[in-house]
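Morning, I've got a small favour to ask if you have a moment. Here's the protein in full, and shout if anything looks odd to you:
***
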Amino acid sequence: VHLLKSEHASMEALIGKYPTLTEDSLGTLKGVKGHFQVDPEAKPRFFKPRSIPYMLHEKVNAELERLQKEGIIEPVEFADWAAPIVPVLTADRKTVRICGDFKTTVNRIAKVNSYPLPRIEDLYAKLSGGKKFTKLDLKNVYLQIELEEDSKKFVTINTQRGLFQYNHLSFGMSSAPAIFQWVVDNLLQGIPYICTYLDDIIVLGREQNLNQVLERLSKVGMWLNMDKCTFMEAEVTYLGYHINAEGLQPVAEKACAIARAPEPTNGPVQAQAFQLSKGLLQSYEVLIHYDPNKELILSCEASSYGLGPVLSHRLQDGTERPISFASQSLSPAKKCYLQLEKEVLAVVWGVKKFHVYLFGRHFIIKNDHKPLQGLLNEEKPVPVLAAGRIQHWALILSAHEQHSFQYKPGNNLGNEEALSRLPLPDMPGETPSPADVVGLLEFMDTSPIDVGCVKHWTDRDCWLSRVRSWPDSVGREEELCPYYSRREELSIQKFFGGARVVIPVQGRSRVVDMIHEAHPGIVRMKSLHEYVWWPKIDQDLENKDAVYVINFSNCSCWLKGVITRRTGPVSYLVELLDERVVCCHQDHLQTNQNHIKKE
């Protein structure tokens, strides 16, 4: 007891030498600045602010004020680049963490910093032989690194309170992990018996080693999250493993689906063999730890009453070794899903379950249901007339852009099959994440039409009311001619099948306005044909915000196009009908179609 008190007092004295490490305020890391390499020809991407739940308004405003007060962000009046925000509740649910959705803007065009994250095996090799372990958790790590001046314009966020430009590195920026790992590695270089992985630092034994680490962190102005730090403990949890003097042991949660699987009841021999199999699946001979440098495979299977995803690594010899298992029973409502929907649900639940491993990395999804390869193909849009819940799940899956599907015969899905047919008895409630809620509210807020709207407008549309009566001829009424020429293609449905939806007059402007908001260009605008139709749809799409550009090779001619971006006070980028993009001064543009000779 006396020894423990002595060690505790010694640690307090050591930490007391560096009071700046435990300050609540947030400053700037000294001598280090972050930088993004962006193609100067890259086309800026500007997104309007997303709607957020009313319950989060005050928390978001408070967090914006805090970040502004500490110099992390600053308001700006104009910006070429702007990303929406995703507010995420912290663990105590009292505050929010504001994350810019930079995957829609700068992450698409910035060159990702190639500084490597350490290999997990190398970190664990350094920890062998240790008896006492100190784990340090750095506070607000990314926010402590200031950005170069020319990089700040790329990381503007668009909020309900206007535009804010980041002055510091932030969560959601693709190069942030590599930049911070480089900073920490260089800062602590030369100190023995330490391991660093992003904001987690582990120090073995000796107080003098810990003293060197704390001294260097203090000198550059870093902060510690004391609630997550442990000092001189015989066992700590680090990167998914319990570490002590005996070695490593995987955290129980990684294999809880295996450990809790129900035993067979047809005899003691079978029960004994089953327990032996469970022990092997949780052992080092089978279960391996996550390695950011190895290929990731997510195998998923769904039975009539359960889901069973398995996350694995593919090794150099081609074998697959599991990292973690999961299993879940389906609720009574989900048991009524079609088998196709259950298979999609297994994939989406597996992706959400192993999000921390998969996000930002390329991974392969394996499944024995071939239709999924077409339905959720990462290179094709989701069929707009697919079932609503499948569209919703596909939207969730789209956040993980770097994935591919691979067919795996059912007789090779042994682990997954067992987990789906021996699911855990509990059915944990699915509480949507703040990001899901924000995305859903945004979708609901901006969706131009739904089934109810189309029905309401169709019932009141004078021309569609005539069309529904199936006239034998159109007479002299020119408005009915387009419908009459397509009379073999029209049908009246309560549920959308494989056909395009006819939009009544009242809803057409809303559809056109929404697609023009993103300035997608003429070709992408016309892809709307895949989903909806009405007479003269091409003309409506082209004429919305249409401009005419003088043709300098023949000054008597004008070329039709649409403005895609403003490049200066009096200059614009215009996409022409032949897909060429030209930069024009406003004096060389016309919006009036009259008295203009066009090519």
Summary: The chain is about 30% helix and 20% strand. The longest strand covers residues 558-568.
